Amino acid sequence: MSSAFSFSEWPPALSEDQLEALTLYATTYALAHGLLYLSPVKPQPPIPNSAIHAPLSVFPSPFPRRLFSLARRLQSTYNILYARIATDVEFLDKVMGSVEGVGKVDDFVGQLWTGWKALRDEGTAQPLHLGLFRSDYLLHAGAPGEPLSLKQVEFNTISSSFGTLSQRTAALHRYLYASTAYYNVFPDMKPADFPPNDTTAGLVEGLAAAHAAYNFKEAKILFVVQAGERNVFDQRLLEYELLEKHSIHVIRQTFDELALSASVDPATRALSIGGTAQISTVYFRAGYTPTDYPTAAHYATRFLLERSAAIKCPSIALQLAGGKKVQQVLTQPGVLERFLGGAVPAAQIAELRGSWMGMWGLDADQGVPRARAGAAGLVLKPQREGGGNNVYKEAIPPFLDALPAPERQAWIAMELIVPPAGTGNYLVRAGSDAEKVDVVSELGIFGWALFGGQHGGVQEKEVGWLVRTKGKDSNEGGVATGFSVLDSLLLV
Ligand code: ADP
Ligand code: MG
Ligand code: MG
């Protein structure tokens, strides 16, 4: 498409009839292709019997081709970087541990770290770690006249979701284009502007690589899930692909179920479920938030899995590596070079650093006064995942007033990314008409890495992408939290 694309002229205008027809095409396609959430209505008996389409956008969102290429290119470097962080015990102890690091003041991080430390002291049975990652970005407009740049929001190392649904959303927009050509309201749109998205096969390839490395054909993969999860189709689609393409069976259980069913062989440390099925790989779609651990027994179950010889996706080390504190410490001089120097060309390291906003710890010298003074352009983040935990702009000063000084160590300040203004889209939530709103779109790039073996090598790959779009007045994103809708890309 032409380089003269104007973000503020998106989306193209539709008549009411066109919008209604497109909404019908879109929701029908979504329902027919598993772009779904379980219905919020609890079934009786508790066997799911209805679903709603996932929230979605009618148009894909424009994204500069060169920045999409950049994001994909960066993924391999990020895969290697986080593999190296997760295997640097000394670094993780210092940054996230309970003696010197965040674990001192953040109970959740402290619990995970303490459990991990005890297991390390005992001796680990499985050197390999698997990561299914998602690196998230926003477009940054910067100063007037500057070209748009790509800036990282965060790097997820646990429960990175919406891989399979994002593949379906990309297919949805390709379908709308093919079937209606979007009524030719934007004649510049070309098939080549809709990039392919094969995230399902890619993520499953990562799980299958771990399974193969475990080297016991009859073993199964364990999905650890939350009770009452409504985003089940996103997970099940991975399960179906594992069986269909790789003949690998999946067992799906919650921490509560695993407390009764999981056991570790004292001699071999093989993990079994129900006394029979041996597990090659534990894939966590739970365990990333303190509410997944309401009692000490839930932590005990996590540590039982961790102690086993199964490959964990992620290991506790890799989960801790995904902390926002780690993201901030990486921006300090020399830290990135320490992890990647020698392994990755300097130009690639510079490119990675170029994707970062300014960050500092609230416990740094002048950390709090700086955050207070710059509040209008900042977000504060704790060591949490899953959305809804950050403190933005004008809420920052009163928050700082109330924050006990020791807890500053658990929070980072991050400069706000400023996306291009005036971009809109038509958003559709189940049961409502399409709504035209000004939006911000967040790109996620998926990748996996299998690492930790004797030779220090990292097997890794970039495997696809996701776009989540939210109303511009919402600070937070998150589809599961109800702020965002699933979207895809139109390269411009
Ligand atoms: P979580 O791990 O809970 O998803 P994030 O760091 O992704 O935490 O923050 C949640 C949301 O807050 C993001 O999806 C994004 O919409 C917004 N956000 C986070 N950091 C920034 C930033 N630096 N600039 C602008 N928005 C941000
Ligand atoms: Mg996020
Ligand atoms: Mg996150």
Automatic annotation (TrEMBL):
Gene3D superfamilies: 3.30.1490.50, 3.30.1490.80, ATP-grasp fold, B domain, Glutathione synthase, substrate-binding domain superfamily, eukaryotic, Glutathione Synthetase, Chain A, domain 3. It holds the Pfam family GSH_synth_ATP. Binds 1 Mg(2+) ion per subunit. It catalyses: gamma-L-glutamyl-L-cysteine + glycine + ATP = glutathione + ADP + phosphate + H(+). ATP binds at residues 154, 324, 381-390, 392, 414-417, 442, 470, 476. Residues 220-321 form the Glutathione synthase substrate-binding domain. It is an enzyme of class 6 (ligase). Mg(2+) binds at residues 154, 156, 385. It comes from the Eukaryota. Its cofactor is Mg(2+). Coiled coil: none annotated. Keywords: ATP-binding, Glutathione biosynthesis, Ligase, Magnesium, Metal-binding, Nucleotide-binding. One of its GO terms (cellular component) is cytosol. InterPro entries: Glutathione_synthase (IPR005615), Glutathione_synthase_a-hlx (IPR014042), Glutathione_synthase_C_euk (IPR014709), Glutathione_synthase_N_euk (IPR014049), GSH-S_sub-bd_sf (IPR037013), GSH_synth_subst-bd (IPR004887), PreATP-grasp_dom_sf (IPR016185). GO terms for molecular function: ATP binding; glutathione binding; glutathione synthase activity; magnesium ion binding. Signal peptide: none annotated. Substrate binds at residues 134, 158-161, 229-231, 235, 285-288, 468, 479-480. Its EC number is 6.3.2.3. Pathway: Sulfur metabolism; glutathione biosynthesis; glutathione from L-cysteine and L-glutamate: step 2/2. Belongs to the eukaryotic GSH synthase family. Homodimer. This is Glutathione synthetase. It comes from Mycena maculata.
